[in-house]
Design goal:
about 120 residues, mainly beta, six-stranded mixed β-sheet, globular
């Protein structure tokens, strides 16, 4: 089981940027990881994934070209750089393995994109 703690969310204007961080437990490096998000009243959705080595990434269509997922296995961390943010990116953001482990969801970090 991987335990995670997300951080880096906040309030940002449309077009702005944020970098989310996810600190994970020591066995983190063997797992592919993903960032997920859930907006109020909507189901949780996959945003981006990265392989255990970090060599391959995949993105949901709605963030392609704007978001970048990276990881640092030496720091047991995964990151999500979010650029050109839009109001529809407003959501709670969560990291977990890919596919997610039900018992590994953290508290998430909230992102609000608003003028």
């Amino acid at each position: 089981q991987v335990q995670v703690v997300e951080s880096g969310g906040g309030l940002v204007q449309p077009g702005g940027s944020l970098r989310l961080s996810c600190a994970a437990s020591s066995i983190f490096s063997i797992y592919p990881m993903g960032w997920y998000r859930q907006a109020p009243g909507k189901q949780r959705e996959l945003v981006a994934t990265i392989t255990s080595s970090g060599s391959r990434t995949n993105y949901a269509e709605f963030v392609k070209g704007r978001f970048t997922i990276t990881r640092d296995n030496a720091k047991n961390s995964v990151y999500l750089q979010m650029n050109s943010l839009k109001p529809e990116d407003t959501a709670g953001y969560y990291c977990n393995t890919d596919p997610p482990i039900r018992t590994s969801w953290g508290q998430g970090t909230h992102v609000t994109v608003s003028a």
